[in-house]
Specification:
Elements lengths: L18 H4 L2 E2 L8 E5 L23 E2 L2 E2 L4 E2 L9 E19 L10 E7 L6 H5 L4 E8 L5 E5 L5 E10 L3 E2 L1 E8 L12 E2 L8 E5 L4 E2 L18 E2 L9 E19 L10 E7 L6 H7 L5 E7 L5 E4 L9 E9 L3 E2 L1 E8 L2
Antiparallel strand pairs: 1-12, 2-6, 3-4, 5-11, 6-9, 6-10, 6-12, 7-8, 7-10, 13-23, 14-17, 15-16, 16-22, 17-20, 17-21, 17-23, 18-19, 18-21
Length: 347
């Protein structure tokens, strides 16, 4: 490995992700339960770092016992035939749209190529996965130094585990697996109260009018409470009439019985009020659902919000029956950490 004393130019995450990635979830996010299970070699940098949801960093002058500390997965220089690989468990079973194979800060030590295989397994044991039937979903693809490689795939399979192959060795700073969770509510009982819009249950953001600060509307659906003010959906300061909104699709049609709006860490920038509209959408596209959402019936009338608090609404909800989509309105703008839509799956 080359000895680095100063870092390359910082490579920021793509400001404008392609549509297929922007409307997807990172299935390899550890906050969803994803894990790096094993690597053929991670001598210079442990494979678990590759799934860190934070952007990769370069720390000048930082070394450990094996050499320069690198923020990602890095194998030693291979002196025999073959290539290195890593096994990754996705946070939830899902359908994959594509990848961001990020080599940020890996310059003389990035892999020249990568391929990715997928399988479905009930076991995380390395031996069991080694003997599993694997399907190549990303053929060998060239990589470059210190860059985000946004790679769309065409595969309709549903997968639980990945094998990431690098040729022949080197380092990957981050791996993002863009896709959509599936099947999270298949086993829900008829009287079981579940979060119908949670990412792990197949919920997804369809559209939003703004996400200038913090993350996209996807963060609303992450497990747990937010970790800081950047871990939520926050819009710019509105300087014109109107209000901000996002449209979300439930993991399965359901009857919403309780709503939780969490403004954790949002203090001088939380919305003054919120409301929710909802509908049972059949057919059409995300664009048509977004257009029609302005006219959906009201599930939750406008409610006052406060800073850094969990707001629970139940008695205020209208009896709309089963719905598939909601439009979450905030007035006039601001930030929300999490949205929970507790209800029962419509059978």
């Amino acid at each position: 490995m080359a000895s680095h004393t100063s870092g390359p130019t910082v490579i920021a995450p793509p400001a404008d992700l392609p549509d297929w990635a922007r409307r997807s979830v990172d299935l390899a996010n550890p906050r969803l339960g994803a894990k790096a299970l094993h690597a053929s070699d991670d001598f210079f940098a442990e494979v678990a770092r590759m799934l860190n949801p934070e952007p990769a960093q370069f720390v000048p002058g930082k070394f450990d016992t094996n050499g320069k500390w690198m923020d990602g997965w890095e194998s030693r220089r291979k002196r025999v035939a073959g290539h290195d690989w890593a096994l990754v468990k996705l946070g939830v079973k899902g359908r994959i749209r594509g990848f961001d194979v990020d080599t940020s800060h890996f310059v003389g030590n990035y892999p020249p190529a990568v391929s990715i295989e997928a399988t479905v397994s009930d076991s995380d044991a390395v031996d069991a996965l080694q003997g599993a039937a694997w399907t190549e979903i990303l053929p060998a693809t060239p990589l470059g130094p210190s860059s985000h490689h946004l790679l769309e795939i065409a595969n309709d399979g549903v997968w639980t585990h990945l094998r990431v192959n690098i040729y022949p060795d080197g380092g990957i700073a981050r791996l993002r697996v863009y896709g959509q969770p599936v099947g999270g509510l298949e086993g829900a009982g008829p009287d079981q109260l579940v979060d119908l819009v949670a990412l792990e249950n197949g919920g997804r953001p369809v559209s939003w009018n703004d996400a200038s600060f913090g993350s996209s509307a996807t963060s609303l659906l992450l497990p747990g409470r937010g970790v800081n003010m950047g871990d939520g959906w926050e819009t710019r300061r509105r300087r014109e009439p109107g209000n901000d909104w996002c449209v979300l699709e439930l993991g399965a049609p359901g009857i919403i019985e309780k709503v939780e709006v969490d403004t954790a860490f949002f203090k001088g920038n939380y919305p003054d009020r919120c409301s929710i509209q909802a509908a049972y959408v059949q057919g059409g596209t995300d664009q048509s659902a977004t257009t029609q959402s302005m006219f959906w019936p009201v599930l939750l009338p406008e409610q006052k919000l406060s800073m850094d608090a969990v707001h629970t609404f139940a008695e205020q909800l209208a009896a709309l029956g089963p719905v598939t989509h909601v439009r979450f309105n905030i007035f006039p703008d601001g930030g929300v950490s999490r949205l929970r839509l507790w209800g029962k799956v419509a059978k």
